[in-house]
Automatic annotation (TrEMBL):
<keyword id="KW-0597">Phosphoprotein</keyword>
<dbReference type="InterPro" id="IPR003660">
    <property type="entry name" value="HAMP_dom"/>
</dbReference>
<keyword id="KW-0812">Transmembrane</keyword>
<dbReference type="InterPro" id="IPR036890">
    <property type="entry name" value="HATPase_C_sf"/>
</dbReference>
<keyword id="KW-0418">Kinase</keyword>
<protein>
    <recommendedName>
        <fullName>histidine kinase</fullName>
        <ecNumber>2.7.13.3</ecNumber>
    </recommendedName>
</protein>
<keyword id="KW-0902">Two-component regulatory system</keyword>
<feature type="domain" description="Histidine kinase">
    <location>
        <begin position="247"/>
        <end position="456"/>
    </location>
</feature>
<keyword id="KW-0472">Membrane</keyword>
<feature type="transmembrane region" description="Helical">
    <location>
        <begin position="12"/>
        <end position="37"/>
    </location>
</feature>
<keyword id="KW-1133">Transmembrane helix</keyword>
<dbReference type="InterPro" id="IPR013727">
    <property type="entry name" value="2CSK_N"/>
</dbReference>
<dbReference type="Pfam" id="PF00512">
    <property type="entry name" value="HisKA"/>
</dbReference>
<dbReference type="InterPro" id="IPR005467">
    <property type="entry name" value="His_kinase_dom"/>
</dbReference>
<dbReference type="InterPro" id="IPR050428">
    <property type="entry name" value="TCS_sensor_his_kinase"/>
</dbReference>
<feature type="transmembrane region" description="Helical">
    <location>
        <begin position="168"/>
        <end position="191"/>
    </location>
</feature>
<dbReference type="InterPro" id="IPR003661">
    <property type="entry name" value="HisK_dim/P_dom"/>
</dbReference>
């Protein structure tokens, strides 16, 4: 697997994200386990320390007016199993009865008389836990309250906290590993439909653009539908281009054969007059072939731009005026009165300027070559959400040819010597802009109207 595939792999990305989440969760849970372990160890050993302190207090007695202590060996044994234990007993007069003289507590007398006071401290350079309690002495000679202080180092409770934390970490690690294994299996199982779709597409022939038949889970149903829609559009476009290429090859073959025949005739012995006739026919065939080639390219361009071109705001008056100026040749074989009728106000549409200009140029060329005898008018108009550019000429109409056949590629009228692509190009552009190509007879003129939608959806 290449580096780019690693970045794009859904399986690796999902596992990586979940691993990061599980790792962060394990760290948080580990810290929480450490805190809980410290609290649990503290509470457990505080109970032992409190119990031992109470036992020491219970073993304080008065003999001959003097406070004395009978040390509880069992209590001290329990506390000193892992730690050092220090104690101190002070009688009501402040005299140290037993223990370490420098062992102190910050507990107040009121707090000590209410019960055991626990606190953290240091003694002999060791961190210790200190328990302090006061014992009432019922002897008027000895005084009233004796103070008992017991301190224990914290080694045992720290060891217990570490042991609990280690066990908690072991459980968390085991659960994290199991979770990762479960995630890996779940991802593999969850991505299996994608693998099936991949196998189906890879196993198809290049021209097999049928909808995908593999299972469609809800989560990828829209993705599969989008792929099916794309393949449907691609199939339609390929069928259109294949049909166009086949028709173009057929249409180009005829003028090429005629041109080849004229060249063959020119190569033989003949008089000057016959040579001039053949040369004229060669020029005519060459012009016809050039025009056919140009219209084939225009038709392919318009078909391609129908779904892909970027639209912009177009002023139809400006588009029609500029196209008319470029489409009319400087010299014509006959006198033709050419006029332009703009609309007021100028219609504005959202469209592809190149396609609209090509469509109008083909309509004007079609009218000049096959229609107009002495008059040609290009007019712009708008009504509601429809705008149009129409080309009128005083030709003889379309000789009862149905409109549907006129706009079909390579379909021509009975007396037309053209390629049959001009109206097809205009019709493609009109439909791409939410309109249609319309034909009419008005005032003795043949009208071809390129209708466009003012607001394209």
């Amino acid at each position: 697997m290449q580096r780019g595939d690693l970045r794009l792999s859904l399986r690796i990305r999902i596992i990586a994200v979940l691993s990061a989440v599980l790792s962060a969760g394990a760290v948080v849970l580990g810290l929480a386990a450490w805190q809980y372990a410290l609290i649990a160890a503290q509470q457990a050993y505080d109970r032992l320390l409190s119990g031992a302190t109470i036992q020491v207090a219970e073993n304080v007695y008065v003999q001959g007016g003097v406070v004395a202590l009978d040390p509880p060996v069992a209590a001290f044994s329990t506390l000193s199993a892992y730690d050092l234990v220090y104690y101190k007993v002070v009688d009501p007069r402040g005299v140290i009865v037993a223990g370490y003289e420098d062992l102190t507590s910050s507990a107040t007398p009121a707090a000590m008389r209410s019960g055991i006071v626990l606190e953290d401290g240091h003694y002999q350079n060791h961190p210790v836990r200190i328990a302090t309690i006061a014992r009432r002495i019922d002897d008027k000679d000895a005084g009233q309250w004796a103070t008992i202080i017991v301190a224990q180092t914290v080694n045992a409770r720290t060891a217990l906290a570490r042991d609990l934390t280690f066990k908690a970490f072991a459980v968390i690690a085991a659960m994290s590993v199991l979770a990762l294994l479960a995630v890996g299996l779940a991802v593999r199982f969850g991505l299996k439909p994608l693998a099936l779709i991949e196998q189906e597409i890879v196993g198809r022939r290049p021209d097999d653009l049928r909808p995908i038949e593999a299972g469609r889970p809800v989560e990828i149903r829209n993705l599969v539908q989008a792929i099916d829609d794309f393949m449907r559009r691609l199939s339609e476009r390929m069928a259109l281009m294949q049909r166009f290429i086949a028709d173009a090859a057929h249409q180009i073959r005829t003028p090429l054969a005629a041109l080849d025949a004229q060249v063959e005739l020119l190569s033989g012995p003949q008089g000057t007059r016959r040579r001039a006739e053949h040369l004229a026919r060669v020029r005519e065939r060459t012009t016809e072939l050039a025009r056919l080639t140009q219209q084939l390219l225009d038709h392919a361009m318009v078909t391609h731009r129908a779904d892909m071109a970027q639209t912009s705001s177009l002023d139809l008056n400006e588009v029609a005026k500029a196209t008319l100026a470029k489409s009319v040749p400087l010299t014509l074989a006959r006198e033709v009165d050419i006029a332009f009728e703009p609309a007021s106000p100028a219609p504005q549409i959202e469209g592809d300027a190149i396609s609209v200009r090509e469509a109008l140029a083909n309509l004007i060329d079609n009218a000049l070559v096959h229609g107009a005898k002495s008059r040609l008018v290009v007019a712009v108009g708008q009504a509601g959400d429809r705008a149009w550019i129409e080309v009128r000429d005083d030709g003889g109409g379309f000789y009862q040819v149905e409109g549907g056949k006129l706009v079909a590629p390579f379909q021509k009228g009975e007396r037309s010597a053209g390629s049959g692509l001009g109206l097809a190009i205009a019709d493609e552009v009109a439909r791409a802009h939410g309109g249609a190509l319309e034909f009419a007879e008005e005032g003795g003129l043949t009208v071809v109207r390129l209708c466009l939608s003012v607001s394209r959806e």
